[in-house]
Amino acid sequence: MKRTSALSLVVAALLGGGFGFLIDHALTMSGRATFTPAVGLPILLVLLGALCVALAWPVRRSQRSATAPRVDPFRAVRIAILAKASSIVGAASGGAAAGMLLYVSTRPVAPALGSVTTIVAAVAAGAVLVVAALVAEHFCSLPPDDGAKDHDERQPDDAGPGAATGH
């Protein structure tokens, strides 16, 4: 499994930012109040990041220590996938909150301090989730084998029986 690329995180953040900006714009154009995330959103994003790291820690300990109990490889893959999905969710939700913040800050009327505080907390919590998820994904990745050769670098005599005949 490939690690989460910076490009996918940037794209998720930009799409989320555009979505957050457009939602607030559409609400304002229809005469409604702008969207403000709930206070629980930043808390849940940070808790999800902490959960990712907590789940990935035994995998890291298993890789680093010979005395640590071995972790089921399927469990490690599931945790890595959770971390990958969490990093994308963190980028998208942080981007959406940043888009809302951008829209609110460009309005001629100053927004309420409570709504801006919640939006800034959501941006920060999205960034914390991305970092925590990337750390958890790193914990679940295997170190490269030093002694193993790539399949492309095999010598003709290493090909094994039947390699030349195609069997």
Overall description:
- With 167 residues, the chain is mainly α.
- It has one domain (6-142).
- It has helices at 6-29, 40-64, 73-105, 113-139.
- Helix 2 (40-64) runs parallel beside helix 4 and helix 3 (73-105) packs antiparallel against helix 4 (113-139).
- The protein is elongated and about 60 Å long.
- The model has no long low-confidence stretch (mean pLDDT 85).
What are the salient characteristics of this protein?
single chain; 167 residues; mainly alpha; 65% helix; 0% strand; membrane; DUF3180 domain-containing protein
Report strand %.
under 5%
Number of strands: 0
Principal-axes geometry comes out as elongated
**Mean pLDDT over all positions:** 85
N to C succession of SSEs = HHHH
Rounded to the nearest angstrom, the distance between the terminal CA atoms is 29 Å
Class by SSE composition = mainly alpha
Major sheet: size, sense and barrel closure?
none
Number of domains: 1
Kindly provide the radius of gyration, computed on alpha-carbon positions and rounded to a whole number of angstroms.
23 Å
